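Working notes for the structural subgroup meeting. M.R. asked for a predicted model of this chain before we commit to crystallization trials. I am recording the input and output together here so anyone reviewing the notebook later can reproduce the run.

Input as submitted:
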Amino acid sequence: MIKIILSVLLFSFITSYSQTNIKGSYFIAAICKDGIVIGADTRGAVLDSLSRPYGYFDSVQKVFALKSTILAEAGYISLHQRFFADYIQEFKKKI
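Returned structure, recorded in token form:
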């Protein structure tokens, strides 16, 4: 019986990926007396060719201030091998 239980546990570890059931970004906004506060998670994922996550990293900027506008980004954090933040910084220089 113990061999069956260990085999099932081993099989479940082999076929599972860390945090694959957690998808999406998390944002929160609060209207305060002095203005609006916006916060977001900072986790990004590295995907394989089948769009399955095989790695995660933190410190991804997802909330940006553009003059009097706040922009929050969710979804893919890069486009054409450049981070979304790079495009925002480039745009800021032109406005």
